[in-house]
Design goal:
The protein is α+β, with helices and mostly antiparallel strands. The protein has a five-stranded antiparallel sheet with strand order 1-15-3-6-5, with no helix packed on it. Strands 13-12-11-10-14 form a five-stranded antiparallel sheet. A four-stranded antiparallel sheet has the order 4-7-2-16. A hairpin with a 5-residue loop joins strand 11 and strand 12. Helix 4 runs antiparallel to helix 6 and helix 5 packs across helix 6. The chain is elongated and about 70 Å long. The two termini are 41 Å apart.
């Protein structure tokens, strides 16, 4: 029997045992930054300005019950917040593991993806296993730079930034209709910052936010409406068609966009913008942890590229488990 689960189910409560001998040292775990945002130098007049941060506790993990028979060879993965230079500081605040956990480690992926990996050899019948990690995340506020007029769009991009000109699921990066519309919107822009801002304002003024199934960037432009991921995807698609790197930022229950411009000396910076909700261009005051930055991830558990890397569970033997994925804020 092989059981694969990617969604929430009910689960029974269980007392826990802390298993710190399985884990990395506090110093090693504290440095959860698998990839730092490049070129973030707040002292530059062209760089985003980072303010005081707010600390919140974010719990990630799995609770798995075997109500009828045993479950064997259980493999679980979930994304966890990572350090991002100047913007987010992450430390492990608490770890709770029952004795069923055999192995636990972190895996670094490309473009800042960080995952926790858990293996349980067996969970006996009528037992409940738990693997919970609570992270202290200090998220900094972001305001626009002092000098935006001299920021540039350039073909001379670092390799890790150039990746965000490519195609992603539901984001078309080379499309004649998207390119034509983006050029129309930005025809009278006086500089690169204005060019991006005109794309941003046009979407907010002309594309209606509406809950529903995701359509993707091109379909959203044609329909004239979309849900929050669609609005973000359309902005990113416009940018990429104009050779401006852009990407999705994922926070709990939400997402927004970032775009990349360079200063005259060739230093590059990422700037956030919120497509749904209140107007927020080049600034961000969201204290929710950044979980992922990007929209085209590859992981061994999935054959196709992923817009977002969620939890993954595989049970290779025994009975069908009851599963609850944990992703929640912890109140102090």
């Amino acid at each position: 029997m092989v059981e694969e689960v990617d969604r929430e189910k009910s689960v029974m409560p269980q007392n826990v045992i802390e298993r710190r001998q399985f884990f990395m040292s506090a110093a090693a775990v504290g440095a959860l930054g698998s990839q730092l945002a490049s070129g973030q130098q707040p002292q530059s007049e062209y760089a985003p300005v980072y303010g005081e941060g707010m600390k919140r506790l974010w719990k990630v993990g799995l609770t798995l019950a075997a109500p009828v028979g045993f479950c064997a060879n259980i493999y679980f993965t979930a994304n966890v917040p990572a350090n991002w230079k100047s913007e987010q500081i992450v430390k492990v605040a608490d770890e709770q593991f029952t004795r069923h956990v055999g192995q636990y480690k972190y895996r670094d992926g490309l473009y800042g993806l960080k995952q926790m990996l858990v293996f349980m050899p067996q969970v006996p019948a009528r037992h409940t296993a738990m693997a919970h990690v609570t992270f202290e995340v200090e998220r900094k506020s972001v305001t626009a730079p002092q000098n935006t007029e001299a920021l540039q769009i350039t073909p001379n991009l670092p390799r890790d930034v150039r990746f965000f000109l490519g195609m992603s699921p539901l984001i078309e990066n080379r499309n004649a209709l998207l390119l034509k519309k983006a050029n129309e919107i930005t025809a009278d822009a006086e500089n690169a910052w204005q060019r991006v801002e005109k794309l941003y304002d046009w979407i907010r003024e002309n594309i209606t936010y509406q809950d529903g199934a995701r359509k993707g960037a091109l379909a959203t432009l044609r329909a004239g409406f979309g849900e929050k991921e669609d609005l973000t995807s359309l902005f990113i698609a416009f940018c990429r068609n104009l050779k401006i790197p852009a990407r999705t930022v994922w926070v709990p229950d939400h997402n927004y966009a970032e775009f990349y411009l360079q200063s005259p000396d060739g230093q590059g910076y990422w700037f956030p913008c919120e497509l749904s909700g209140r107007r927020s261009f080049g600034e961000m005051n969201d204290n929710r942890p950044m979980l992922l930055r990007g929209d085209n991830f590859k992981v061994p558990e999935k054959p196709e590229p992923q817009r977002y890397v969620g939890e993954h569970l595989k049970v290779k033997g025994g009975s069908k488990p009851q599963v609850r994925f944990i992703r929640e804020f912890v109140q102090v």
